[in-house]
Structure formats: structure tokens, C-alpha cells
Amino acid sequence: MMLLPRRTEEARFDPVSRRAFLALSATAAAGTYGLMSAQPAAAAQVLVQPSIRQQTIQGFGGMNHTAWISDLTAAQRETAFGNGAGQLGFTILRIPVHEDPGRWSGEVATARRASELGAKVFASPWNPPAAMTEAFSGGKRLRYDQYGNYARHLNDFVLYMRDRGVPLYGISVQNEPDYAHDWTAWTPAEIVRFLRENAGSIDTKIIAPESFQYRKNLSDPILNDSGALANVDILGAHLYGTATADLDYPLFKQKGAGKELWMTEVYHPDNQSAEAWPRALDTGEHMHNALLYGRFQAYVWWYIRRSYGPMREDGQISKRGANMAHFSKWVRPGYWRVTATASPQSSVYVTAFTNGSKLVIVAINKTAAGVYLPFSVEGAGSGAFATWVTDANRTLAPYNRVVMTTGSFNAELPAYSIRTFVTE
Q: Please, which contacts does 102-105 make with residues 24 or more away whose CB atoms are closer than 8 Å?
């Protein structure tokens, strides 16, 4: 691959043009935020049913790509993957598979520290080595006689990282094969062929197809081909501009038994400042939708440290990052999402999780008025919840303790806020 100058790479991966349709939806969403305040209003009851388990959560995280932006510092690695005060509690790291093995070493330090802190590390390639590719009418593709060599290239990366203390959880066949303006394109048939004939030789879990918009025309052929499906462990998808109505995937429910379902890249709603409030709440709502309607088991942001990302350029958690942390710090790998009233009133969203002993509830209020929520936890007795809140003036701040009596409690959601409840 001919490497682009750094400035060009920066423009390619932080552009308004790259995801132009996002700006339209973000502008429309901005009109929903008012400036007035009001007294808390009562909402319909939230029923939480811990015994009705949905998907298992694998984790939350983001991308580190040292060829395009500078590596996380040692302190920033702790902020990203530690779970103390002022830390994000991320449990997933995504890294690239560079086409040039000479650049692999740049990803080791952050990946190793993330792994030491318990995070799953997975990798995605943008291009095979240049000698394995050819030009065609649609851009650039992997030569058909190089599929075996490409599988060895990916496996070499797996072994390289393992030898340096990073056991990869999985590796992708290709990043966004259906948005390949600047990287390698794959047709659905080509992905199926590679999976069926070559992916079995790679010594880690295989992720495919990582469509940029969760387009089912790329993943349906995998699910409908028994040979290809046998060699896929994780169906990966990106959610750039994906409508909520398109998150449900009946064919995966039908044929994806034993497979994991990951959302492996997004930034939402736009690439503007991550500190804008209350727009940052759109990130929390997007996570709620991905977990509830998409039944995704993982939620992975684009760059971890970026002006529009979960960590600001100064290494501090952003307001968008706080929205992510309201899930990632307390909904740990191995928790189940459980059934709960998803929206007790307009612009209020609730998601609930359990590990069998603890119950975690994340509630989002995107209205200008505070809201009182009556909760009922099916099968629960008495106890208490520790809570944390993020709003215009607070970020992941400890908030009022809530007492539950015979499975019921009332709690306030301040105006434009996200609040997490965790059983003590």
C-alpha cells in the first residue's frame, strides 16, 4: 500500500464528508433540546425482570491506531482501561492489522497494558500487503490466488501479538469492505469464499463482515453458507447512520446460535465536540438502542482519544465518554442484559443488567424536566442502590443512595441526565 501523508490520513478519518449523512440526523436531533427547566414529572412504572435474560455482554471500548494518531500515553491507558475514579472502565480494545509487518510493534504497548487490565483485544485490517492486491473496476481487491497468503498474514499478526503478551480475542477479515473508497473492497461472495476456504487456519476467533452500516446483504450470505458460518465466531457490524428499525436481525437469531454479535465501530451522533451538552446524551441513547434493539454484546467506539471521543485530547473523560462509562464501569463482561421497560415516557430510556447477584440499571432522561421514575424489580426483596449521575454540571458523580422495599423504589432523573443504579 502506498501510505498517504499524515495530514491526508487525518482528513480521511476525521472528516465531515466521510459520514456526511450523520450531520443531517445530528442537526435534526439538536432541535429537540430545549432551554427551559421544569419540576420533576412522574413517569410510567419501570418493570425490571432480572430472571428474563437476554444477551451476554462482552464489553465496551474503543480503537487505538498509532499509524494515524499518536499512541495513548501510559496514563491514558490507565484512564481508558482502569476502573477507578476518573477512569472509563473499558473492557475492549480494537487495534489495526497494518499491511506492513514493520509497523506492528507500534500497537503493542497499549494492547499489552489493556490486556493486563483484563480487556479483550481484537484487530481489524484495512488492507492486505500491497503485493497481494490488484486494481479492478471497483477499486482494490485481494487477488484470488493470494487468499492463503492473506490468511497466513493475519495469523502471523495473531502470533506476533501473542508472543508479546497480547492474546488476541479475535481478528477481522476486513474493515468496512462495503465502504472501501480508500482501502480494500470485498464482495459478499469473496468474503464467503475466504471464510469457507481459508479462515479456519487462523488461530483466533474470526470476525466478519464489519459492514459500515450493518448492511445485511453482506452478512446474509455468511449466515446462509454453512461452510463460511462454521469459520465465523463473531458477526461484527458498524452503525454509521443505521436506523433503529434496521438493528433487529431475524436471520442472525435464526442461524447465529453459538456466535457472538458485536458492534465494532461507530461515533455518534457526529464528529463535533464530545463536551456539547445535552447532545452527548445521544451517545447514551445510541448505546441503549444498540443493546436493546440490536442485541449487540459489545459496543466499540472509533478513536478512544479524540475531540469527539470518550477521552479528550488532554486525557480526561469527556461527556460522551461519561455516557459510555455509565455502562462500561458497572456492566462488566459476563453480565446479561435483562428485560426492563425500555421507555417509560417519551425521551426517557432504561436498560438493565445482572450478573446473577448484582443488578445494574442505566436510565437516561433527554427532557428539559426532571423525571420521577417508580421502579418495580420482579422477585426482589429489600435493599439499596448506589447511584452515579452525569448532567450539565456533574460527570460520573456519586448521587443519592436509593432504598428499595419489597422490590419497589422511586428515583429521580435530573433534567438532561444519565444515571446508573447498582445494588449494594
A: 103/67, 104/157, 104/160, 104/161
